[in-house]
Every structure is written in structure tokens, then in C-alpha cells.
Amino acid sequence: MSKALLSSNGPRHARILAVGSAIPSRVVDNEYLCGFIDSSDEWITKRTGITERRWLGEGEDLRSLALAAARRAIAKSGLDASQLSAVIVSTVSYFQQTPALAPALAAELGIPNAVAYDISAACAGFCYGLAQAEALVRAGQAQHVLVIGAETLSKLTDPTDRSTAFLFGDGAGAVIVGPSDDNGIGPVVWGSDGGQGDVIWQNSDWAKAVETGAWPYIGMNGQAVFKWATSFIAATAKRCLAQAGLEPDDLDVFIPHQANNRITDTLLRYLKLPERVVVARTITKYGNNSAASIPIAMDELLSTGAAQSGQTALIIGFGAGLVYAGQVVKLP
Ligand code: UT7
User: What pTM value is reported for the model?
Assistant: First the structure.
């Protein structure tokens, strides 16, 4: 007797229904960091675009930021938390090996029996999570998915390291992905190049850190990352557009990972985006928020009225691994 493997019957399309974000209260300006490194406000601003960033303040942590971002996204979606069926958290700065952060957040948010797991894909983490959410919804494996990018990289940044001290900020962003009549999330272009795993690194693993008593920090060959981002990632961004069947002229909004304004400028030139395209520049006041940078920027553009619901946006994340992922989306 044959035993059928029945496939689930999902909707044909998915889209982002809502976005929310949370940034911590402590403002850290360039002058403050120049007390630790031989640098200047002028150098940091000119070379990166960053004038200040946010670090965790009193009573704040990764979990509280992630929760706040998630609650805002859920509220804007009009859904009750109990209607969500999966939670994906992307982070590299949750310092508990197990259990993961996602099931804890699901419980706290009141999402019963959620499929819940964390992913580690550094600054590409949000786009990785979004690709998974889109696939889950489209395949009928989940109805509504909460994707959170949350980072507290201030905890992994050595304030005396001249090559990284000024770059990172803390924050969280979240989206709700759900079924849709038309396609709101284009094909993802993603991958990795582990052969370049040594251009962004953690200077010791946790076991060694415990053994030596030295807290681990992120190190980086900034020039190598810069080169990769302005060549390979530029070409990848072009592939995202092509995969979605779009030309640069079809875009309304560009939300690249907020790594460096000079990288963003180079991507813009390479893609030949029209002047009218709205470009995310949240790095200026929030620094590089890794997996959280794209949803934070998306929320900011929408809440300030710089971008509108339904507009077409190219998003692309890239970072340690090296990993990358990008897709064209309709803004919630
Ligand atoms: O999320 C993804 C992960 N990271 C990134 O995407 C980062 C990508 N890379 C970058 O954003 C840039 O490489 C940095 C902003 C990190 C560095 O900028 P750069 O233009 O690549 O600087 P550089 O390392 O080529 O150094 C240029 C000059 C050097 O001086 P000389 O030799 O020209 O006299 C450095 O000594 O700038 C000097 N320099 C600094 N000066 C003041 C390097 N770091 C600093 C500093 N303050 N913090």
C-alpha cells in the first residue's frame, strides 16, 4: 500500500506586513571614542559617515531591544501575537549558547507553540532570515513569521582598537512576513565565501576566553572588506535586481547594510540608480548595527515619511563569514 507524502498547500506569495525597531538610549559620539583611540571626529565622519552611534544604556540589553522591536512590528501588523507561527532571530551578539533567544522571545511575546530558532549570519543576517521566512510562508510551513535582527556589538568591540572602535552600534529591527495576493519579496541572491573568513574575526573563541580570562573582541581588515563590498557586493546587488526582473529605474528605495557611507556611495554609482531613489543613511546616527541595520533603516525611512508603503526597495546585507544576501521587496 502506498503511503502518500502530501505536500503542504501554501499561498503562492509572501510579503512584509510590518516593520518595527528599537535603538538604545545611550548616545556615543565620535569625540567620546577619540578618548580611547588616536583619531578625530573629522576622520571618522569623513571615512564612514558616522557622527554618533547608540550603545546599551541603563537597564537595556539585547533581549529588551529585540522584544521592543518585535512588539512594535506586531502592533503595526494589526495581528495578535497568537496569530504568529514562527520566530527567527538573527544575531551574533547573544552570549548564551543554548537555549536560543527566539523561543524565549516567542514565550515572552505570547506566541504559542512557535517554530523558533536563531541564525548567525552577521550583517547579512536579516536578509537570510527574511529569505527563510518568505520560503516558510510560501511553502505553507508557517502562516505569519516574525523575523528579528538584533545586535549589541558594543559588547564585542574593543574601544581601544583603532580599526573598529568607531564602527558599531546597538539596536534591533523586526518584520512580520505573511501571505499575500501578489509577490512582495523577490528571489534572494545569497551565499558565502568562507575562504575570506579571516577578514572579520572574533579574536578568541569562548572556551579560550574563559581559559585566559580575556574577553573576545571583533577584529577586522577594513580595507579587504571595503574592497569586497564595493566589487563583489556591487555586482550581487545588480543580480538581485535582475533576479526580480527589474531595472535600476524601477526602484524607489535602496537600503544597503549600513557599513560605511562610502560603500553605499560606490554601490549607488555602480548600480546607476536614479537620483530620485531614496537611500538609507542611518549609519550617520546609529553606526553599523549588523543584522539589525536594514530593518532599523526600513522602519526609519517609513516612519519619517522618506519612503512609502508599497514602494519597491532593494535590500542587501554583507559581512563576517564572509556572507551576503539581498532581495527586492515591497515596503510594508
Ligand atoms: O559590516 C561589515 C563589516 N565592516 C565593514 O564593512 C567595514 C568596511 N571598511 C571600512 O569601512 C573602512 O575600511 C574603514 C572605515 C574601517 C577604514 O577606512 P579606510 O579608508 O579603509 O582606512 P585605511 O585603513 O585605509 O587607513 C587610511 C589612513 C591610514 O593613514 P595613512 O597611512 O594614510 O597615513 C590609517 O593609519 O587612515 C588612518 N586610520 C585612521 N585615522 C584616524 C586608520 N584608522 C584610523 C582612525 N582614525 N580610526
Answer: 0.96
